[in-house]
Amino acid sequence: MSILFEKLALVGVGLIGSSIAQGVRNKGLAGHVSVATRRAETLEEARKLNLADSYSQDAREAVADADLVILCTPVGAFEAVMKDIAPVLKPGAILTDAGSVKGHVVKTLGPLIPAGVHFVPGHPMAGTEHSGPGAGFPELFEGRWCILTPEAGTNKKAVERLSEFWGALGSDVELMDATHHDMVVAITSHVPHLVAYNIVGTADDMETVSKSEVIKFSAGGFRDFTRIAASDPVMWRDVFLTNREAVLEMLGRFLEDLSVLQRAVRTGDGDALEELFTRTRAIRRSIIDAGQETDAPDFGRSHAEASREGTGKS
Length: 314
Ligand code: NAP
Fold this sequence. Notes:
By secondary structure, the protein is of the alpha/beta class. Helix content is 51%, strand content 12%. It has 13 helices and nine strands. It has helices spanning 15-27, 40-48, 59-63, 78-85, 103-109, 156-168, 178-205, 211-216, 220-229, 233-242, 244-267, 270-289, 303-310, and strands at residues 5-11, 30-36, 54-56, 68-71, 94-97, 118-119, 122-124, 145-148, 172-175. It has a six-stranded parallel beta sheet with strand order 3-2-1-4-5-6. Strands 7-8-9 form a three-stranded mixed beta sheet, covered by helices on one side. α4 (78-85) links the parallel β4 (68-71) and β5 (94-97). α7 (178-205) packs across α9. The longest helix is centred in the middle third of the chain and has 28 residues, at 178-205. The relative contact order is 0.11.
């Protein structure tokens, strides 16, 4: 493939930053890849993995002269990073991010973007429960959605170039309003994570069933939740701190529906239970049919991913 950007700078080089760097280098999408991260150990790990052409603990140094800058730190760090790098961003550069929340990002970063820099917020809807540079892999974005949420009036060419970039990494790109994005991910990702954190926490707090029994007898249901509940604590803390309204809205609906289900269990309403479980099974089927999941008995993840885990690479 041909070079899409002369210099790409990634600020944050965990699962997402590392996967972007690997995909870009494999496909030759940038003339130069620079990465910046906060801790020396993380930078060293990135260097060992040969993720970039240049490495720095100084984000300003990494983004100087970059045509495309992608913020790949937890969302809570974006504002400080942006305040730091804003003075050195190249005029005409595209600034985007990988953050899982968009309304908050638009609100906090928007006013900090220097004139002449094109701000196109983004969210690659791909991930695993692993973090750090070693968790990254170049195929992470293949066949996954990447949502971009440019404000009205954003330079069209910048949006097109960023869409082409994500397309080259294998993603399907969709443009969406930031508020709508936050509602969609609240129900498809954020509330499910909260439910997983909660159910694993509840099992951990139980007095009548011992912790060793929970682990020893963990059947598919609980085990699947533990995978989600193993996701990075800082990243997910920031998601719930920054997408509060959409999460509370969806959580309210979830709790109402849970009460209905609780009542069906208490009253022995088998018809209601069966009707719901039939509907939900069909949803699973349509996700598989849409190519967003496999039917394999390995937590539904791709075999490549499962075997990568087996080798401890993920
Ligand atoms: P990660 O693996 O935990 O990596 C985070 C990176 O950010 C590391 O390089 C870390 O550097 C750096 N960092 C952390 N705190 C920082 C701070 N306060 N200042 C500067 N750098 C900091 O995270 P990730 O999973 O790649 O997620 C990155 C972003 O992508 C997040 O905004 C997340 O919402 C979004 N996202 C994640 C997923 C997913 O499934 N994981 C999916 C889609 C989008 P040090 O180690 O040097 O501190």
